[in-house]
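Sequence in, structure out. Go.
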Amino acid sequence: MSSNDPPSSRGFSGSAGARGASNEETLKTEKLQIERKSFAFALKENPRGRFLRITEDVGGRRDTIIVPATGLEEFKRLIEDMLKLSAETPPKTHQP
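Output:
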């Protein structure tokens, strides 16, 4: 599996899914494993423009969001704000 393989409707890589992504070009793909979740980040381009596709996989259940390239800076700013708040705020104690 190459990091430049297009995602399919059944997973993170393979041929184009049922919805048809034949005119999408994958510019870069990165994967991240956090606890039991896998995240695939794919920067893509199609005739309508560039976008970031983020797919979360938890035990075979997949959810995807698409962020248009025009919104990536704002998306980054929001993530940075959340990281700052998380670092500054002590976690609440959880009871078993």
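Check: The radius of gyration is 16 Å. Residues 72-88 form the longest helix (17 residues).
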